[in-house]
């Protein structure tokens, strides 16, 4: 099982949905500590969000288990005016474009492709809209016991 987040970050950067501002989870933690005023630009963060085990096979030479891996794309969009109307339209376009960029694609080493699990508004405070899209992908744990 390989790390999926860097591959997904590269894919989102290649699509230029966030003007190259797509970062790993550690950057999101630093931004959250700094507060909304430190987030003046549209940006996204990719982080692992879940791991669910499925059926397994064990033999003396190998252990194989199907897993569903969850990855979240959390993006923040500054609210430029008091009404937030333009940002609401931008938010919907970002949701659709991000979903199209991720779903149906998977790294070469994974047996599955990404599926949308859910999306939700996380926050709309301090002049910032924060939205989270959750995706899952089928993968396998493989190792020698």
Provide the CATH top-level class.
Alpha Beta
Low-pLDDT sequence parts: none
- From the spread of the alpha carbons, the general shape counts as elongated
Which value, in Å, is the CA radius of gyration? 17 Å
Provide the residue-averaged pLDDT: 84
CATH topology category name: STM4215-like
Q: What assembly state would you assign to the polypeptide chains in this entry?
A: single chain
Annotated CATH homologous superfamily: Phage tail protein-like
Strand content: 35-45%
Structural class category: alpha+beta
Task: Please tally the helical runs, counting DSSP H or I stretches of 4 or more residues.
Answer: 3
The sequence of SSEs as H and E is HEHEEHEE
What is the number of independent domains? 1
CATH architecture: 2-Layer Sandwich
Separation of the first and last Cα atoms: 15 Å
DSSP strand tally: 5
Structure report:
There is one protein chain. This protein has a 5-stranded mixed sheet. The two termini are 15 Å apart. The chain has helices at residues 5-15, 25-34, 85-102, and strands at 22-24, 43-58, 63-78, 115-125, 128-143. It has one domain (5-143): Phage tail protein-like (STM4215-like, 2-Layer Sandwich), CATH 3.30.2000. It contains 3 helices and 5 strands. It has 145 residues and is an alpha+beta fold.
């Amino acid at each position: 099982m390989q790390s999926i987040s860097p591959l997904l970050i590269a894919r989102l950067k290649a699509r230029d949905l966030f003007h190259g501002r797509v970062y790993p989870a550690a950057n999101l933690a630093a931004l959250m500590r700094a507060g909304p005023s430190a987030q003046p630009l549209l940006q996204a963060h990719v982080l692992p969000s879940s791991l669910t085990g499925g059926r397994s096979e064990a033999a003396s030479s190998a252990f194989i288990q199907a897993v569903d891996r969850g990855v979240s794309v959390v993006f923040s969009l500054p609210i430029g005016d008091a009404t937030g109307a333009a940002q609401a339209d931008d938010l919907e376009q970002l949701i659709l474009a991000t979903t199209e960029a991720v779903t149906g694609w998977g790294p070469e080493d994974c047996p599955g492709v990404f599926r949308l699990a859910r999306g939700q508004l996380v926050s709309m405070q301090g002049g910032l809209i924060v939205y989270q899209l959750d995706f899952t992908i089928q993968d396998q744990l493989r190792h020698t016991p």
